[in-house]
Structure prediction request, 499 residues.
Amino acid sequence: MAPTKTAKATTSRARLASIIKSARDTMRKDAGLNGDLDRLPQLSWLLFLKAFDQRVEQAGPMLDPDYRPAIEKPHRWQDWATNPDFSGAELKKFVDQELIPYLAGLKGAAGHADDPRNVLSTIFRDVTNRMQSGTLLRDLVNLVDEIHFDSSDDIHTMAFVYESILKEMRDAAGDSGEFYTPRPVNRFMVQQSFLKLGESILDPACGTGGFLVQAYEELIQLVETDTQRRQLQANLRGIEKKPLPYLLASMNLLLHGIDAPRLVRDNALLRMRDATAADRVDVVLTNPPFGGEEERSVVERFPKGYQTQETSWLFLHAILDQLKQGGRCAIVLPNGSLFATGENSIGARIKKKLMKECNLHTIVRLPQGVFAPYTQIPSNLLFFEKGQPTREVWFYEIPLPDGRRGYTKTKPMRVEEFEPCVRWWGGEKREGRKEGPHAWQVTSADIEKSGYNLDIANPHAEDDLIHRTPEELVDELIKTEKEILDLLGKLRKETLELR
Prediction:
């Protein structure tokens, strides 16, 4: 009787959820970890090393006989994490004094951001083991080692659970002033960008990698060969300035099947300003930070007349130069960016540059509170193609669902709310668009006359005031007054900068 092959260990979704719960319970006992902003990164870098060992190090020699391990003994997961005799005190000392410094000091091929050694060193140069108890660290490592990444089913299972962890991470980060793109929004932006295999795709403010994961899931369905799969992975590029989102994005992409994420940890504005023609891309998908201010040395890298500390304007300007001729972009921008007008407004100058160099064909106006509870700033999705000037701009307003006054953590926006807009869109060539209760068109000549104001209200909604409650009208008035004060403050700052 022929011997049977030993089946690979797998981790069911229920079992994985149980392990993750136990891991988080273990971390809660440690005095060195305070809240999810400490616990989730701790779990993430351990998960990354376990996944990297199974997905890259152990699988590498089977795919390439000349594969050189990125991590040498005794720093491989299989060397230290699986040793039951490695006591808590010894383990903590090894992790703190040997493992993390070793990983942070790895050096791969120069100029190859996707070299595993470069990826590892970029991640671990900012990683710290925050756990104070060696015993609890041993328990946590044992739990992570129970998770398997051998099969595509394992990867999909872990990716599902990891996305729920990321959502909690975003909730926690939102309390500290950061927020991320809701999944329905980035899914819609990717879908309406009509991506194709072979195109280079960039998110210069990639956060935890949501746009890149969504693009990969969209395009992997078209892949038929290993060559196409490798090319797809190489074409997905991200830039992230902060160490924590960079770690989370690397883990997110790895779990979704991208074994060598092409992520760069850098200031995207400087990176794009230094880019050459060879660095230009076919597609940009992004939600850049807005409302913040860049340091003076970054601002001065931009041309005179376009220098502002407002990050959203700088990103938009940089993206215009980053796109190839014929390239396209989908970007999130706040109402304040759309409104800026006047000869002395840097925002108006950048919008003029946008409309002269690109076809700004569609602006989707999102409902109030899509990014709630982190910010109430109204936002918009701009879609444009580089190479031809804008002749007219179509606007489409996504309404709040009937009976809803906003969104919350427990009742966020749903992807189904974009379906009427998808049907109206007219496919890749945008054919058959018609004006209606939520859609209207404005010529570029009218926009130019207005001083490049793109914050254009739905003309079909004027009579809606009579149906609104007094409370809604007062809330809207307060919101508008706050926006006006904010815009006046920015206008005053820009005026002073021009003196």
